Amino acid sequence: MRAAAGGRGFLLHPRPPWRAPATPPCPPPPATATALARRLHHRRLPEGILSTLERGVSTLHLRRWVHSATCGVTLHDISQAEPVNGAKSDLVQKHEKVGAFQRIPMVMPATDILMSAQRKSRNVPPTKGIANIAKRERNKGAKQLDALMKEISVPLRTYTENFPKRRDLHPYERSLIELTFGEGYYEKVIARVDALRKKINSVGKQHASVCAKSLTKREAEERLSEGRKKLEEAFEHGKWVIDDLVNIAKTLRSMPVVDPHIPTLCLVGSPNVGKSSLVRILSSGKPEVCSYPFTTRGILMGHIVSNHERFQVTDTPGLLTRDDDERNNIEKLTLAVLSHLPIAVLYVHDLSEDCGTSVADQYITYKHIKERFGDRLWLDVISKSDLLDKKTSSEFDDADDVGRYRRFGPECAIRVSVQGQVGVKELKEKVHQLLTSQMSRIKAGTIYQETQRTDDNAPGQT
């Protein structure tokens, strides 16, 4: 039984048989939109439910029992709303997460795919019970060609379906794909693999159909052999795209995972200023340390464990003094980390110029990065201070900003020498304080996001 309300219906569950009361029963409440709205208002439910119902929600679950003289309506918690015509709810939001690269499926080399398909297809027997030799042979040929086609195409379909779509990735991971492979290359490889799958399906279905129409055993055998040859040729012609996919999978899986929920210290600065040396003394990361620029050609990760808390440290490629649109992809990796991950910045300066970059150029780069990402928690470090101490004060001119920067560095910067173990203890203490503050920021941001998500999912929101 259904009771009409506002043009929609509620499922009415009959109550068990009961004896009529001595007093006349109360008349049932009017099933009108006004009455329903008043009823919802008295139960302190969120506003907007009735308007949502009017727009086409077919089921509504509330809490409590509403009794009439002859029936009861069960009203549970609002657990779901089923929009008409299968439309997706605007309240469903997608929350981007990192780590998609570690879920990429293993890709078999093209040679292994073909050999496995050949072996399995040859073991496919004809359907039992076929006495006629010609019919049995054409049945076996058609089944084996179909099996060969599927054994090749099914892995290809798995790859195209399970490799993440770029639009679904975290912005940081999207940047890594673009900077590592170039604009559009990732999508082109996935599309080529899918095109190869379609080609295999087309050739396989065509030759399986021809084989199934054979009139003699010999004809069926010849068509089976021809079908195998055509399928293998089609696969050999396009198997290079699988090799490209293998390389993509290996590269992406080898990229370090940065957990945005764990405080991360990002070392930034010009090339060869000593970032990698600081990562080695601060964390478990063991980046290559050499005396030439751009030793770090990717994002390198390490971890710090302090007071039973785990933090992340990332070493980034050095930044040259030039506009962002002139930077190479190695430098853009650093900007991707700064732009898309909730990190704290440890900016490294080499005022001794032992790095090969002049102090004036380092100052320009520093000012640019500081202005762009100054909202991040920040710590400045002057590295190679043992070399700097050898310079006399007469060598410095502090008449302008660059001169003052050359002499003193940024305000409140820590002077460190890895070789002489100068300032290392102070640096570790400051880093711990910085990452602790970063953890508080992350927790506050998480609470804010959860609050926003709760508000957005509340019934009656428009």
UniProtKB/TrEMBL annotation:
Pfam families reported for this sequence: FeoB_N (PF02421), NOG1 (PF06858), NOG1_N (PF17835)
Annotated region described as Disordered, given as residue ranges: 1-26
GO molecular function: GTP binding
Domain Nucleolar GTP-binding protein 1 Rossman-fold residue range list: 329-386
Limits of the NOG1 N-terminal helical domain: 101-259
PANTHER family: NUCLEOLAR GTP-BINDING PROTEIN 1 (PTHR45759)
Protein name: OBG-type G domain-containing protein
Organism: Oryza barthii
The organism's taxonomic lineage, starting at the top: Eukaryota, Viridiplantae, Streptophyta, Embryophyta, Tracheophyta
